Amino acid sequence: MRLKDKVAVITGAASGMGKATAILFAREGAKVVVSDLTLEGAGATVAEITALGGTATAVVANVATEADIHKLIKAALNSYGTLDILVNNAGIMDDFSPVGDVKDDLWDRVFEVNVKGVMRASRQAMPIFLEKGAGTIINIASIGGLYGSRAGAAYTASKHAVIGLTKNTAFQYAEKGIKCNAIAPGGVNTNIGASFSSANQEGMTRAMAGASFNPRSGEPEDIARVALFLASEDSDFVNGVVITADAGWTAY
Ligand code: NAD
């Protein structure tokens, strides 16, 4: 068991990669605080973990709300007495709009969740990590945070920001025993597509034009296994990096 008795908070863990990560972490011995927008969603993940004999608790938390993040980090302390691992996974897509078509409200919503949500949770976890002199943050970025052609302007800019924040956090806290790394997934089969049902088809076609080579889509478990590596002692000497997980899509 690679995470025996570690306490992990995972945002957006009712679905996709967050859910797969919560289940894998629990299988590896972690006590998991599963958070998402609804109790029904988070509770369903907890029920799966419990059925496997794991330990988890559900917390409703919108990462766009400071009070919810406060409640989430407190829940880890109240339920399990500490916090070791924070996975900033919650994220939303945009509608593939290029900058000339971006609507302010969509831009703001994407940044509130994808960037400010990561900052908020990291900020509120930090006092616990500093007191322990240990802690690990894993931010779910995207290949859209490394390249300019896989989504719209808002999502692409938000994921570039997540990678910048990851590196800055790693640098600022490395000497305090706190690590921060990111994963940049390629296309993974999750529910995130539901949020761009009103996609600007022209923009999407343009965005995907560079995607002629894509060996395969990922499954949420492909990303969960990378998160496990970053959460475990196996990656003790790894800090401030972005691990691309895309089966080679962006390797050429
Ligand atoms: P998903 O939609 O299946 O899961 C995301 C979860 O986040 C959902 O359960 C949703 O309810 C939750 N969520 C959304 N807004 C939230 C908020 N404000 N507060 C709390 N929870 C919120 O999507 P996924 O693909 O598993 O996405 C996980 C992460 O992976 C996201 O950050 C996404 O940007 C990133 N990502 C996804 C892909 C992909 O192809 N699926 C590729 C690269 C990166």
TrEMBL record:
What species is this protein from? Solibacillus merdavium
Q: Do you know which Pfam families this protein is assigned to?
A: adh_short_C2 (PF13561)
Write down the NCBIfam families for this protein, in alphabetical order: PRK07231.1 (NF005559)
| Domain of life according to the entry | Bacteria
Tell me its family. Belongs to the short-chain dehydrogenases/reductases (SDR) family.
PANTHER family found in the cross-reference section: 3-OXOACYL-(ACYL-CARRIER-PROTEIN) REDUCTASE (PTHR42879), 3-OXOACYL-[ACYL-CARRIER-PROTEIN] REDUCTASE FABG (PTHR42879:SF2)
What is the designated name of this protein? SDR family oxidoreductase
